[in-house]
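Homework help board

Subject: predicted structure for assignment chain

Our instructor gave us this sequence and asked us to write out the predicted structure in token form, then describe one feature. I got the tokens but I'm not sure how to describe them. Can anyone check?
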Amino acid sequence: MKGILLKDLYIAKNNIFVTVVSLIVLGCGLSFLLETSALLVLAPAVCTTAVFISITSDAGSKWDKNVMTMPVSRSQIIGGKFIFYLLLTVTGILAALIPCGILALCGTDLTFSSLCLYGSIGMSAALLAGGISLPCAYLFDPEKSQVVFMMSFLAATGMIAGIVLLANRFFPVKDHMLLAFGIVLGIAAVCFWVSYRISVIVYRKRDIV
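My token output:
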């Protein structure tokens, strides 16, 4: 699986580098207009586009046929994509924290609770969107998969809103924001794991031609 991850990183390295630099510059630039920590919501979603670049590249180079001759199982192939997605999500969070740290050193008022709040929202959105779009990458052709990927973040936003509204029936969310979005993040992580299991089943039944 290590080789599969390295292959994906090699394919997407230029895109990842440009994305990370852009997020750092964007975070510093937006600090004059918005709370810098809000970049934590956007950053994971932006970084995970590299996963679909690698999936499109695999389809174009017939990688799916070549990897079948290697000593890796289909579950490891899928696991590599999901781990790659998680790595990029974390990369997005870390990239967004860099301008936050720079501005904090310059005297900008940033609180730990706001970083946790926006970070959990960004992670939740990325995990829910990945849980929707990654299985579809193995059900549809690359073009349709790209459309699903873009739409999945809209669906993730709706799911987060629904979970928060449901949680509000049991406790006042406005008074316990970190708890509410901690629950959202936990549910998103479970959904992402379930999506991995579904993707493995789909890929095992798929004919590689």
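Reply (TA_rk): Your tokens look well-formed. For the description, you could write something like this. The first helix runs from residue 2 to 30. That's the kind of observation they're looking for.
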